[in-house]
């Protein structure tokens, strides 16, 4: 079994980026990552594989982040640009539009394009059917295409 230090070193950046993409706030994202590691330390789950461990940690940080976003005290103030700086104005515009997507669609788009998970893996992480993930990806692409098309024509 790995030590807490090994787990933190291996997953802290992934969990932080994921939490930030949901909460939109650096401090909240850091809190969610810390709480995720606390839960891992407290429960010490036995994992079948590294992928199972990674999926469990992602599931916890996503659930914690979603719960925070639903709370009345949460305020979004940070953007995905803080963790994925844009190299061009077009890329910056795309990232800003991704952050405006509805939460469930934004999560899927983020995990697919920024963390490079496939639909099956995203379904496992989010506890959703693969068809649901693909539908959200399709809706997200459609929304982004429409918004970006409108901005190009303006």
The string of secondary-structure elements, in order, is: HHHHHHH
- How many DSSP-defined strands? 0
Which strand-content bin applies to the residues?
A: under 5%
Gap from first CA to last CA: 56 Å
Please state the second-level CATH architecture of the largest domain. Orthogonal Bundle
Instruction: Note the main sheet.
Output: none
Poorly predicted runs of 5 or more residues: 72-78
Radius of gyration: 16 Å
Described by its quaternary structure, the protein is single chain
Percent helix among the residues?
over 70%
The CATH topology of the largest domain is Rna Polymerase Sigma Factor, Chain: A
The number of domains: 2
How many helices in DSSP terms? 7
What structural class results from the helix and strand content?
A: mainly alpha
Could you say which overall geometry the principal axes of the C-alpha atoms support?
globular
Mean pLDDT: 83
What is the CATH top level name of the largest domain?
Answer: Mainly Alpha
């Amino acid at each position: 079994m790995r030590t807490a230090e090994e787990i933190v070193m291996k997953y802290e950046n992934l969990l932080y980026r994921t939490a930030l993409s949901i909460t939109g706030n650096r401090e909240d994202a850091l809190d969610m990552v810390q709480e995720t590691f606390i839960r891992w330390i407290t429960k010490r789950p036995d994992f079948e594989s590294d992928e199972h461990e990674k999926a469990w940690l992602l599931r916890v940080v996503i659930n914690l982040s979603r719960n925070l976003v639903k709370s009345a005290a949460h305020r979004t103030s940070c953007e995905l640009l803080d963790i994925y700086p844009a190299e061009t104005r077009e890329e910056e515009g795309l990232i800003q539009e991704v952050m405006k997507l509805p939460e469930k669609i934004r999560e899927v788009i983020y995990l697919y394009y920024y963390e490079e998970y496939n639909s099956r893996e995203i379904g496992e992480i989010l506890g959703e059917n693969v068809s649901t993930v693909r539908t959200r990806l399709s809706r997200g692409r459609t929304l982004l295409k429409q918004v970006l098309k409108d901005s190009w024509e303006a």
